[in-house]
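Quick one, probably user error.
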């Protein structure tokens, strides 16, 4: 939503919005773009002069005719103001451009940001929409278009004129099949690793969603992938060339992401030297193995990994840096009850790759309220689904998988901070991992007094 607001502002539209009171990196991004936003939802925010309202899927569902108890959505519907879901709004622009969609269970954010940086460095007219803040841009969106072209395409809800000259790189989200709104010219498919069990009830249904998305490719119908899926014979498959890229972030998975981004750039004719130069300049994405810094001899890292495969990739990044695993601490916060329950054993196995594991309460999502009310019938399951109950069970499983390693559960951030203060030592690495707000612990760790640490 933040990225789409940035793009609209860049095209000259007046943009404002509303969000929860909870703090995210997007708050600072919006402030830097001088985009006005309210904390909290009120119907008074919906004024008559609004031309279009774009809504997160957390608050509105067309497929079930469901409207969440959101006063702004209700007011917009009452006043008959045009309303689009986020993917619908993005699609109105993306489908008129030369669209490049990056999809897959993991690596979308990094790969799309790499591709956006390559496109920008090539001088092509570029729009990029990413799921997190790209450190090079200090935003989760990029609009790099020649002034004359930008002026010619300014129109209510974007005109068709000239837009095919714009390359639009997008992180295409598979949740609730949102990416089926998009009709790209090139699709980058990174991987298919079962996720979002609250929506996709089987691994097969999850895979079918990607197959349906790939089938929507438009001319020249290029698919960049190493995955084996059912596709039309008209689609041309390009396999990425695995060669070492000059990246600032370690890990085989980042090299794989770079290879896919490079293959897409090569397919549209960007010279290899520009590709290499752009990848070398790419500084990474917020919350993707983001090093907060080394404070008093302790290295602090935050990573958004919220799937077992991604958690294991964090361990790979550490090994690639030559970090001693005996000195690593992971503070893990699982994201959504459904994912944690479905992939429980895989999470325990991934966490066993770390020597010291601290587990926080499960971080819920607004989209799970229906799940909590209707799916969990028994008291036992309700207890498990509670943020602390499920996390404690995961801690016990991780402890068994870790063998001689340490795994503990803490119910609050303050308890995590207190526990770490008593146990971490100089030379340790402390990582907060997960899609929730565990990263806030690192803010506290910055203020540790070295006198209180063990030598």
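Nope, works fine. Designed sequence:
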């Amino acid at each position: 939503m933040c990225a789409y607001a940035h793009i609209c502002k860049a095209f000259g539209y007046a943009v404002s919005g509303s969000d929860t009171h909870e703090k995210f990196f997007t708050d600072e991004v919006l402030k830097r773009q001088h985009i006005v936003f309210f904390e909290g939802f009120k119907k008074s925010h919906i004024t008559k002069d609004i031309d279009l309202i774009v809504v997160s899927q957390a608050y509105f569902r067309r497929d079930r005719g469901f409207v969440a108890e959101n006063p702004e959505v209700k007011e917009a519907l009452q006043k008959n103001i045009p309303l689009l879901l986020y993917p619908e709004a993005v699609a109105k622009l993306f489908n008129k451009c030369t669209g490049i969609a990056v999809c897959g269970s993991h690596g979308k954010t990094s790969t799309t940001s790499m591709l956006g940086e390559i496109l920008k460095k090539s001088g092509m007219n570029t729009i990029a929409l990413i799921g997190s803040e790209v450190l090079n841009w200090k935003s989760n969106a990029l609009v790099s278009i020649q002034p004359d072209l930008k002026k010619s395409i300014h129109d209510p809800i974007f005109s068709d004129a000239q837009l095919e000259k714009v390359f639009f790189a997008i992180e295409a989200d598979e949740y609730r099949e949102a990416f089926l709104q998009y009709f790209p010219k090139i699709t980058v498919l990174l991987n298919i690793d079962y996720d979002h069990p609250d929506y996709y009830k089987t691994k097969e249904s999850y895979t079918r969603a990607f197959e349906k998305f790939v089938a929507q490719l438009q001319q020249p119908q290029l698919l960049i992938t190493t995955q084996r899926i059912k596709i039309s014979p008209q689609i041309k498959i390009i396999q990425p060339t695995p060669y070492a890229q000059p990246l600032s972030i370690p890990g085989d998975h980042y090299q794989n992401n770079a290879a896919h981004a490079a293959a897409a750039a090569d397919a549209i004719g960007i010279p290899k030297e520009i590709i290499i130069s752009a990848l070398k300049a790419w500084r990474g994405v917020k919350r993707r193995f983001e090093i907060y810094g080394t404070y008093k001899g302790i290295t602090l890292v935050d990573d958004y990994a919220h799937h077992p495969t991604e958690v294991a990739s964090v361990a790979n990044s550490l090994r690639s840096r030559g970090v001693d695993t005996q000195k690593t601490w992971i503070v893990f916060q699982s994201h959504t009850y459904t994912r944690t329950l479905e992939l429980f054993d895989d999470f325990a196995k991934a966490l066993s790759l770390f020597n010291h594991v601290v587990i926080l309460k499960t971080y819920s999502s607004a989209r799970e309220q229906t799940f909590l009310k209707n799916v969990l019938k028994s008291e036992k399951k309700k207890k498990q689904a509670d943020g602390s109950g499920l996390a404690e069970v995961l801690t016990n499983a991780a402890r068994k998988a870790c063998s001689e390693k340490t795994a503990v559960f803490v119910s609050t951030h303050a308890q995590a901070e207190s526990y770490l203060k008593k146990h971490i030592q100089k030379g340790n690495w402390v990582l907060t991992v997960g899609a929730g707000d565990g990263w806030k612990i690192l803010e506290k760790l910055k203020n540790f007094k070295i006198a209180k640490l063990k030598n």
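The longest helix spans residues 252-267.
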